[in-house]
């Protein structure tokens, strides 16, 4: 995975639409993102609106970007990779842990029926809500609180996506998975984790390691 210090430069002046297409063709498709719905969502969401004004020239570079208070907007490939792993259907109910900038939320909202998203930092949630309203995103419900507890009264969920790293898979999130549900979460020590795909089939819970990643920590009862 890339970081902000290894951003690949945009080769020539491009419109924002051209930059989104360039991102898809150089950062997503060559690294194995194949789901046409995911690729189309990544082409559609205006990433530049979800980064601080001083970072907008770097919105489509191949790396994470700071959004304030030690938080980041993930590298485009990581957003697409995690989203693709969920195998979302258009009527799915999705829980997102870590609203952050709202960029991942916007991508999920184009692919699922309902998105519930939890953010610990009130100012960040409020900022994301304003941006998502600006792009006419209407199928998202917000909560400010401890994301490691999930959102039990809104569950069960067909898919859960965690955008911050936990030392272990939080048990409440497994409990809130519907039958056939999928959960993607970065698991591991601070600074280095693996994405883990958790699937529920009845009472059977399976876990599969996907890719190495580095996320900010999940702060809460079942996090750090």
Write a concise keyword list for the protein shown above.
two-stranded antiparallel sheet, 7-stranded mixed β-sheet, 27% helix, single chain, disordered N terminus, alpha/beta
Mean pLDDT over the residues? 93
> Main sheet, how many strands, which sense, barrel?
7 strands, mixed
Low-pLDDT regions: 1-7
The separation of the N and C termini measures 23 Å
Helix content: 25-40%
Q: How do the strands line up in the largest sheet?
A: 5-4-3-6-7-8-9
Order of helices and strands: HHEEHEHEHEEHEEE
Q: How much strand?
A: 25-35%
Please, how many helices? 6
- Characterize the overall form: globular
Please provide the count of β strands.
9
Cα-atom radius of gyration: 16 Å
SS class: alpha/beta
Quick rundown:
The protein contains 6 helices and 9 strands; from the N terminus they run ααββαβαβαββαβββ. The chain is of the alpha/beta class and 224 residues long. α1 runs antiparallel to α2 (36-44) and α2 (36-44) packs across α4.
């Amino acid at each position: 995975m890339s970081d902000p210090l290894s951003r690949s430069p945009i080769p020539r002046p491009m419109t924002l639409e051209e930059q989104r297409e360039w991102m898809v063709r150089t950062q997503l498709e060559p690294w194995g993102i194949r789901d046409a719905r995911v690729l189309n969502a990544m082409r559609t969401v205006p990433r530049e609106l979800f980064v601080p004004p001083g970072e907008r020239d770097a919105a489509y570079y191949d790396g994470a970007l700071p959004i304030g208070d030690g938080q980041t907007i993930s590298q485009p490939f990581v957003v697409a990779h995690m989203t693709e792993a969920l195998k979302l259907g258009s009527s799915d109910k999705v829980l997102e842990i870590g609203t952050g900038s709202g960029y991942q939320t916007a991508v999920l909202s184009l692919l699922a029926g309902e998105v519930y998203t939890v953010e610990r930092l009130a100012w960040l949630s409020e900022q994301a809500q304003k941006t998502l309203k600006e792009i006419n995103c209407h199928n998202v419900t917000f909560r400010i609180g401890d994301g490691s507890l999930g959102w039990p009264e809104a569950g069960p969920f067909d898919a859960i996506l965690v955008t911050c790293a936990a030392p272990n898979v939080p048990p409440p999130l497994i409990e809130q998975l519907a039958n056939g549900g999928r959960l993607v979460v970065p698991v591991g020590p601070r600074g280095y984790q693996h994405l883990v795909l958790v699937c529920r089939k009845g009472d059977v819970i399976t876990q599969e390691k996907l890719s190495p990643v580095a996320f900010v920590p999940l702060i809460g009862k079942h996090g750090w």
